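ok posting inputs for the 2-(butylsulfanyl)adenosine job
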Amino acid sequence: MADAKEKARVEKLREMVNYHNYRYYVLDSPEISDEEFDRLFDELVALEKKHPELVSPDSPTQRVGAEPSDEFRSVRHRLPMLSLNKVASEEEFADFHRRVLELGGIAESEVEYVTEPKWDGLAVELVYEKGVFTQGSTRGDGITGEEVTPNLKTIKSIPLRLSEEKNKAPRLLEVRGEVIFPKEEFEKLNRALAKAGEEVFANPRNAAAGAVRQLDPKITATRPLVFFAYGTGELERARFDNHYDTMMAVRDWGFRTSKEIRLCRRPEEVKKEFEKTKAAREKTSFEMDGVVVKVNQYKVQKRMGELSRSPRWAVAWKFPPQKAKTVVKDIIVQVGRTGALTPVAVLEPVRVGGVEVSRATLHNEDEVAKKDIHIGDTVFIQRAGDVIPEVVGVDKSRRTGNEKIFKMPSRCPVCGSKAVRLPGEAATRCTGLACRAQLVEKLAHFVSKGGMNADGLGFRWIEQLVDKKLIADPADLYFLEKKDWMKLDRMGDKLASNLAAAVESSKKPDLPHFLYALGIRNVGEHLAQVLARHFGRLEVLMETGEEELTQVREVGPIVAKSISSFFSDATNRKVIEKLKKGGVVFPTYEREKLPQSLAGYTFVITGTLENFSRDRARSELEKRGAKAASSVSKKTDFVVVGENPGSKLTDALRLEVKTIGEKEMVALLKGDKKPEDL
Ligand code: IVH
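and the output
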């Protein structure tokens, strides 16, 4: 047992470590050297090791320690995490200001705005109960996010316990803010990734998101993430009547907040802040893409209210895209996973918005012609927010006459097959069935972060696996053995085990990631999410026809066609079967848990419903615990009858099963009616 002296020393050390952490990571102004800090920290570690009973979850030694997890739990935010409407000019801001006066019901002289930079990172919510950090989650879709507490604990600017020096900690506090990856560190990370032949991050925001969503907190701990608080969720609001005072309290509780939080009383002041922040943009260590303007007084905020996704009382005033001038050294052609030949400008490296740019996609032949870009031209490139840099125009005054016109090759630069451009299409495509470039791109997409997320399995390994004929489709990955990995160049024992483990751990994807990984044309990450939510299971999606697919919100005829032709392709179906044999577990979409009000009841649907596809209706019923069967039997409780019902209606009548309409079904789904009431 620890004696009183040791106990007191542990307390003292914790206090000192916390204080110096705060000076270093929050205030950015350390008082002691790194060596001195390490000595204090090491002494604390040693004492806690000697007396494990003294370890507490909020001790600064407990930032890293949790074991890797298999997946993230989803959590519902107590209050939705909204997003912001954007304005892009002084006029648009003036419109916002007018709405504030009108809807807020206040006079020009009463208006108060709070401005601060709009950080470009990942939004998270931190929950403090009785002053202790107990749960952290990502924003997710604003309603539910992923629980990432152990990862967030590794971020030193997130206090594990609130400082109560100036303000008593509330019983419950939710702090919201942005996790950001410092710009310089981001470039360092990308250089290291590129050197290792791995996929680089497109921007600091993706790097931050990648780090926070690591299953192993030990990896997160190695990333130099910073947390900036910009607001609160649940909090005893009564304490404060405006955002500014709340933010000052948040600062006093030990959080890093922007040094540029300003209280402005007139639109002109807001404009000045915007200009000032814009001018400082290049020099700051953190990526920002605008200024957030919020109405300060809570009573005015309340009067204005919110729309479904964003409050009326705040806007993001976005910076204009950043531009630079450079020279097109060459135009090369890349082959993507769909065989599309994409012209890419190879640029004299140039910095735009704090990021070095050496390539820019030119999309397709027409685009090159329209913008009239020649090899050797001096061009303007622009980077808007976090998107990929783009060539926006040519400085024709710099032409010398030695520039070369780009011509789309008539053969695939990788496999030599004919490249054709079909009528009505912008893309020229390689027709090679066995084009190596297409295969490599498909596989790289399959294992990418947005897909199966086989960590570390970068391009250079995929290229070798393909070239050595170890894999010919994604499923082959799951049949590789250690000895196969060892056949690759520059492969070691440890690395081979790591890669094999990464493939192994990718066997349990969630449905959105799995759908994205398949690389169905036109199905990006967002649509994969939409489809997963709608269909719940891969098997359901696979059997849904083109017609029915278009009933899904956000799915138009083109997307429906590419989905249905993907799943009706025999080769694709074989690969999917093979994935299963290789041990890939086909996921179902984890839905939010609804009250199981229909548990024990069996439904059959017949005919066409007005507001639901049959699949959707089935899945809505199932979400509430019901069983949705495909044929009517004596065990069926309800037959939902739509327009033009089929033989199931006759069966229902014959078997004397209760029939209901769509309206009644909706009432059951909503819980307005109970099944026993019908
Ligand atoms: S306030 C209701 N302040 O922007 C107000 N958001 O489009 C909600 N963001 O998801 C947000 N810096 O991730 C606020 N200083 C700032 C911000 C900020 C970045 C992000 C945040 C949010 C998104 C909204």
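notes: Residues 4-26 form the longest helix (23 residues). The pocket of 2-(butylsulfanyl)adenosine is lined by residues 82-84, 116, 118-119, 123, 139, 178, 230-231, 292, 311, 314, 316 (CB under 6 Å).
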